[in-house]
Amino acid sequence: MVSQVKSKQRVADYGEVLTPSHIVNAMLDLVKQETERIDSRFLEPACGTGNFLVEILDRKIRVVESRYAKSQLEFERYAILAVSSIYGIDILEDNAEECRQRLFAVFEETYSRIYKDKVKAQCLETVRYILKKNIVHGDALTLKTVGTNPQPIIFPEWSLVNGSLLKRRDFAFHELLSHSSMRELPLFSDQGEEVFIPDPVKDYPPVHFLEVAHAYGD
């Protein structure tokens, strides 16, 4: 049986209790359709080691495989889109890093199993880069990163444009939460309804999705 705590001290200091898989799946099944939509975005503000996010990505990757496995380029494009839809924050650095590694493993296992010696290093680099940006060592209460020089948490929005180009726009997390429209309108939706689209703090030109890891200089 997998332990739900790493240590009593972490429970005392941070209230850290890991959610068991059967509860994760039961909760995600309540929004099953969204967990299987490749580009639906999920944010876990206390993601721990990623129990919820890993299961969400696993569901999305299974959908990508079922639809696009016959074309490696199509699989890569939509699997990266699935990865880019996953966001997390955790106050503990080791948790954030373990979450990134677990999410990467979900992608890599399926990618390597299907394409074997055709796996592209650039594709793996893109996934690692996106996870580094999307899974943040931060405090969801202060809305800042954790460390010697805390900064406002910034999340990138990733979207496919013109086939294989990936568009990045960065948004301040505190702006997303403080905007009054956030309470009534969905964020970054593509379902046809009225949406809340905040102003980005930085806007980048589209780049090929296999060039993302080296495109921004950060």
Mean pLDDT: 86
How are the strands of the biggest sheet laid out side by side?
Answer: 1-2-3-4
**Helicity level, as a percent range?**
40-55%
- The radius of gyration computed from the alpha-carbon positions, rounded to a whole number of angstroms, is 17 Å
Give structural attributes:
218 residues, 8 helices, four-stranded mixed β-sheet, four-stranded antiparallel β-sheet, globular, alpha/beta
Brief write-up:
The protein has helices spanning 8-14, 21-28, 32-35, 51-68, 72-84, 93-115, 121-134, 173-178, and strands at residues 42-44, 86-90, 135-139, 144-145, 154-161, 165-172, 202-203, 207-208. The protein is α/β, with parallel strands linked by helices and 218 residues long.
Give a structural overview:
The chain has 218 residues and is of the alpha/beta class. It has a domain at 12-146 and 209-214. It is 43% helix and 16% strand. The protein has helices at 8-14, 21-28, 32-35, 51-68, 72-84, 93-115, 121-134, 173-178; strands spanning 42-44, 86-90, 135-139, 144-145, 154-161, 165-172, 202-203, 207-208. It has a four-stranded mixed beta sheet. Strand 5 and strand 6 form a beta hairpin. The N and C termini lie far apart (40 Å).
Question: How would you summarize the topology of this molecule?
Answer:
Blueprint: H1 8-14, H2 21-28, H3 32-35, E1 42-44, H4 51-68, H5 72-84, E2 86-90, H6 93-115, H7 121-134, E3 135-139, E4 144-145, E5 154-161, E6 165-172, H8 173-178, E7 202-203, E8 207-208
Parallel strand pairs: 1-2, 2-3
Antiparallel strand pairs: 3-4, 5-6, 6-7, 6-8
Helix pairs in contact: 2-4, 4-5, 4-6, 5-6, 5-7, 6-7
